[in-house]
Amino acid sequence: MSTSKKTAILGSGNIGMSLAKGLVKSDYCLPGDITLTRRNVQHLAAQEQQGFKVSDDNFAAVADSTVVILAVLPQQLNILLDKIAGAIDPARHLVISVISGVSCADIRAKLGNDVQVVRAMPNTAIAIGESMTCIASDNAEAENIAEVTKMFKTVGEVIKINEDLMTSATALCACGVAFFLRAVRAASQGGVEIGFHADEALRMAAQTAKGAASLLLELNSHPEQEIDKVTSPKGCTIAGLNEMEHQGFSSSMIKGIKLSAQKAGELYTKE
Q: Locate the Pyrroline-5-carboxylate reductase dimerisation domain: which residues (predicted)?
């Protein structure tokens, strides 16, 4: 891959824009190094004022880049790949896909077998440098894997996994943001029930969730180890935990993740 950081993000929706903002915020590249594409470029007026290049021409954006990030909806992918195939140069381009349920082989089937493809599954926390991104490839060279790792490490944590686990990563990490946010929302509503104003309860719940996650990451400990520290015999914490379990808290989360993984695998069709 060229040492140039000229990047085309094809499909500037939530994930595409989060990625662009995160890369710039972390000083990985300048706004002018990134071309954002969207069918209606009027929706990118604010980003253009911030220095990003904007375009509704995906072919031209690819031709002017060395890194191509596919960030459209799964049902839009085949049309996009047909449009840009002629602009792809396997010797110059690295293709990164953040699209759920689409394999590296699916993309090469449209762009050519010599094209190096890396799949990446970030989440929307990439915009503030706190993404959990999983990456996988079945043909990319080590230097390209290292470059993609470097790119996404500037906006959070990165784990390299086997490609057959990428759909599962979508459910746990990408969909997972919504799951944990819903848990924080529920906790804040509980806080209102017991006497706090809504804004206070939300702030308290969010910071408590952040602290709980930080305990696991910074101490490299297990959730049950930390739970044991705040539960005492006949105490209030164990009473609350047991009531939540009786109501299906853990099993609901597990079932939701499993169903999301199943749905993620059904989003893309090769036809």
A: 163-267
pTM: predicted TM-score of the whole model, two decimal places: 0.87
Residues 201 and 203: their CA atoms lie apart, in Å, by 6
Q: Does the annotation flag 71 for ligand binding? A: yes
Question: Which CATH code of 3.30.200.20, 3.40.30.10, 1.10.510.10, 1.10.3730.10 fits the domain covering 170-264?
Answer: 1.10.3730.10
> Is 72 assigned to a binding site?
yes
State how far the Cα of 156 lies from the Cα of 121, in Å rounded to an integer.
12
Q: Say how many C-beta atoms besides its own lie within 10 A of residue 116's C-beta.
A: 21
DSSP 207-267: HHHHHHHHHHHHHT--HHHHHHHT--TT-HHHHHHHHHHHTTHHHHHHHHHHHHHHHHTTS
pLDDT of res. 271: 58
